[in-house]
Amino acid sequence: MVIRTLLAGLLLTAATTGAVGVAPAGAAVCGHSSAQASIKQGATGADVEEAQCELNLATKPSRYTPIAADGTFGPGTEARVRVFQQCAGLGVDGVVGPNTWAALGTWATHVHKCSTTGTATTAQAVVCGHSTAQPTLKQGASGVDVLEAQCRLNLAMEPGHYPLLTIDGNFGGGTQDRVADFQRCTGLSSDGVLGPNTWAKLADWSSRNLYCTPHKPAGYAIDGIDTAKYQHPGGASINWAAVRGSGVEFATVKATRGTNVTDEYLATDLPAAHNAGLDVAPYHYYTASAPDTGAAQADRFIAAVRATGYTGQRAGDLPPVFDFERADDGTGRCPVYGTVADAKAWLDKVQAAFGKKPIIYTQKAVLDDCYGATTAFGGYPMQLADYRSSITAPPLPAGSSTWLMWQYTDAAIPDGLSGPSTGDVFNGTQAELDRLANK
User: Fold this and answer.
1) Parts of the chain belonging to CATH 3.20.20.80
2) What are phi and psi of 122, to 5 degrees?
3) Which of 31, 147, 219, 415 lies deepest, with the highest CB count within 10 Å?
């Protein structure tokens, strides 16, 4: 079961396979040097290679074409340092000193985006600086050629969806899986082996300002995202105009949890998303740690969203969403006091308050395992979570004949976000979405 409030915006790690991880402060993210000496135009050597490689990892999410990682600190490297310093809110002097090194380590290992977007420039032949040999590699290989492959995979795969590989020179299971991901993305046979055809594609994709992105359900043109405090890493704001400009048309924004929690960003995010032109729904995370709290949870939700200006009837107001999951304590257990009647108490009270039948966010497995495969919710529109790329539609709960929204990933990162969110598609036409949003 995917728990929205725990997984959204989370970078996964797989230390046991050497697949992904975050380099500690002062580490050689790219495997060249951990010295982090202050360097400026005219410098040469491994420290420059490390800086150039980290600059590429740090700025490519903003669509900046990688620079040459050739160990020579020339005008092109200085220009990219200045771009990065401006992005990171540092003093812009073109020198890689302690503050710039520290920020590079963070930006190169976590997804960040600049407020500016790069434009396509000349693709460079050397973007990681380890090796140009490109021998056939498979699981069990090690050395500089693997370092090169891992670095290039990080530059080729959209990091908001594919957590960065640790560039450690060891071709383990995580690297093999990532090679297979890249092969599927580029239409190659996905055997996880880096042979000549895969190297050719990898060299091309890693050197330009484009990415391989993961599976998106085919045939659904309307995109949405789901946000909460997790989409505000370090207190970062969401640029909702940029989100809308990237093609996202609807959003569900967390409002409340249980009887005593209001999301700290509700008061800003819901009005800002609405004002930016997105169709917006507030959502409530249902808890059942005590019996018969559904009505009280509804009261808190109603008061919280009304305070933002949401009425359910304005142009752009989508119906409220009832987030109906397993317990969010990491156990995966069913809510202790969750009942169909208690959930209905919330749904009925909120529907009466806003004049709209709420949308239910859930999974078939939740209703099967925790609520006896009830058909009591069959008449509600469904937002269903299922992240498998092997399916063409999410499984329907008992009593439901269709779904309204499919949350298909926990790693969508449109422009305007500083970290990944969950992403959705809408099962309908633009006219149908407009009607649902009172347009």
Assistant:
1) 223-436
2) -65, 125
3) 31
For residue 105, report the phi and psi dihedrals to the nearest 5 degrees: -60, -35
Q: What is the pLDDT of residues 254-291, one digit of tens each?
A: 999 999 999 999 999 999 999 999 999 999 999 998 99
Question: Whole-angstrom Cα distance, residue 227 to residue 210?
Answer: 25
Per-residue DSSP letters for 330-391?
A: TT-PPPTT--HHHHHHHHHHHHHHHSSPPEEEE-HHHHHHHSTT--TTTTS-EEEE---TT-
Which pTM does this prediction carry? Answer: 0.66
Q: Which of 187, 206, 207 is nearest to 197 (CA)?
A: 187
Residue with the bigger pLDDT between 329 and 389: it is 329
Cβ contact 325:1 at 8 Å: yes
> Which residues make Cβ contacts (< 8 Å) with residue 429, sequence separation at least 6?
none
- The distance from CA 358 to its chain's CA centroid, rounded to whole angstroms, is 26
414, 437 Cβ separation under 8 angstroms: no
Per-residue confidence at 117, pLDDT binned at 50, 70, 90? Answer: confident
**CATH number assigned to the domain covering 4-206:** 1.10.101.10
- By percentage, how much of the chain surpasses pLDDT 70? 93
Superfamily of domain 223-436: Glycosidases (3.20.20.80)
Strand 261-262, strand 248-257: pairing: antiparallel
Q: What integer pLDDT is reported at residue 25 of this predicted model?
A: 44
Ranges in the chain annotated CATH 1.10.101.10: 4-206
